[in-house]
Write a structure and sequence with these properties.
Number of domains: 1
Radius of gyration: 15 Å
Strand content: over 45%
Order of helices and strands: EEEEEEEEEEE
Oligomer: single chain
Length: about 120
């Protein structure tokens, strides 16, 4: 999970929980970069997310959010096709989905598989 604060153009990685209910904070290998272009209002989030247990491949991708002219956001992106991706825009205390991309198999996190682009 990435928590993006558009007001400060900053992002933090969230914790990982396993099926047994054990949770760990983001791995030291996690890297999130936020690029904000104020004159057009876009925010791009580039990420390399390694789960807190350092198990399995990292999730890599880039998502750009842009104003849709109605107070909401649109998105374009290029990411590993695993795990799933969901972005929610909170405005005035109300959530709206910006993008939902279903996951493929865990093998789609490996570099030999094609990325999910939209």
């Amino acid at each position: 999970m990435i928590d993006l604060d558009q007001g400060t153009a900053s992002a933090t990685g969230g914790r990982t929980c396993n099926a047994q209910g054990n949770c760990a904070g983001p791995s030291a290998q996690t890297n999130i970069t936020v690029t904000f272009v104020p004159d057009i209002g876009t925010v791009t989030v580039d990420y390399h997310l390694q789960n807190g247990f350092n198990v399995g491949p990292a999730a890599d991708g880039s998502v750009t959010f842009a104003p849709n002219g109605s107070g909401g956001l649109t998105s374009t992106g290029n990411r590993d096709a695993y795990p799933s991706l969901e972005a929610v825009h909170w405005r005035n205390g109300q959530p709206s989905f910006v993008v939902q991309r279903a996951e493929k198999t865990i093998f789609h996190a490996l570099p030999i598989f094609l990325n999910d682009k939209w």
